[in-house]
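1st attempt posting a full record on here, be nice pls
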Amino acid sequence: MKTLDALFTEAVESKKMPGIVAMAATDKGVLYQGAFGRRELGKDAPMTLDTVVWIASMTKAITATAAMQLVERGKLALDAPASQLAPALAKAQVLEGFDASGQPRLRAPKRPITLRHLLTHTAGFAYEIWRTEIAKYQTATNTPGITTCTNAALTTPLLFDPGEGWEYGINIDWAGKMVEAASGQKLDAYLQQNVLGPLGMKDTSFKISPSQRARLASVHQRDEKGALAPIPFALPEEPEFLMGGGGLNGTAPDYLAFTQMILHGGRFNGAQVLRTDTVDQMAQNHIGPLEIGPMTSAAPGLSKDVELFPGISKKWGLSWLINTAPLPTGRSAGSLAWAGLANTYFWIDRSKRVCGVFLSQVLPFFDDVAIDLLAKFETEVYRAL
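the predicted structure (as C-alpha cells):
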C-alpha cells in the first residue's frame, strides 16, 4: 500500500500534519500499518507505531464495553433507573432557559435516566464544546468544565427529557460511574482486569506511566492560516473521577486490538471480552427514529462544525455511530465508528470484515486535513481487500 505511505509522508513533510499513525486489519490480521512525521513539531522524536496519544472520546466504546459486560453478568440493566447505582443522577434537571438575571430555569425530567439513555447519548446531557447553553450555565453557576475531571463538572443540566433527543455529551462519564458502582472497582482497575489486560492493550491507561511519557505525542493546534503549533495539554494527574467518556491515552496497535475484538464478535487474542449476541446488540440502532444531526461548534479552538456523512441517515448503537447507507470510501452500511477530539478516528465494518484506526494529535476536531487523509486511508484500505 505504497500509495498510503506516499500520501502520509507528503502530509507530514509539508507540515500539514505533525505526525500520523494509521493501522487497519481484516479478520485475518493486520492489513496496513504506518507511522509518519514527528511526535512534536520542531523536535526530533519520530512518530512510531507505539507512540502514545490522547484517544479522548475513543475511550467511550471501551467504557461501554465494560458496562455491557456487567449487563451480561446481571449487575447492570439497560432500562432500570441509572440513579439506583449513580444516586447523583436523580438530581439531574432539564434546562428550560435563563431568567432576566441570567440564572438558569430548571425543572424535573419527565422520566428517569437509564443506562441505555447514557450509552446512546439520549439522556439530555451535552458538552459545552457544541452547546452554548451549557457554557452559559457553567458561567452562571460557576460549574467547571468536563476536562477538570471533577465531580462538579458532571452536574450540568439536561437539554431535553431523557429519550426525546440525541445530543452528544457527558453520558459515558456517568456510565463509567455505574461500572464502578456495579463492579465495586475503580474504572481503571476494572478496565485493566476485564478489557485492556485480556486484549493485551498494555499502553492504554488513564495515568501515563514513565515509559508511556517517553513515547507521548504532543497535542497541536491549527491556527486560522492553517499553521500548526504544539500546545500544553494534559488531563489532571489525580482526577476526582476517571473520565470514562474521554480520559484514556493509548496507541494504534492497542486500539486496533479493541476494534478487532468487536470485528470478531467479542473474542480476540484468546480472550472472550463480550458475548457475540452482546456485540450484535451493541451494533444495532438504539435511538429509533431519532437522527444524529450536525454538531455546531460553540468553542472554535476545540472543534469545527461537525457534519458526518451529509445526506446519509445516521443512527447510534450502544456507544458508536452507525452509517445506514454505504460510504464512498467503501465502508458498508451498518458499520460502527467514532472519534476523539484531537482528530483520532476508528471504524469497524462487520460486513466486509475490516477495521481501521487513524491517530493524530491536532485541534480543532474535524480538521479538514485530517478528515481528508482519513477518507483517503479508508478508500485505499477497501481497495486492498
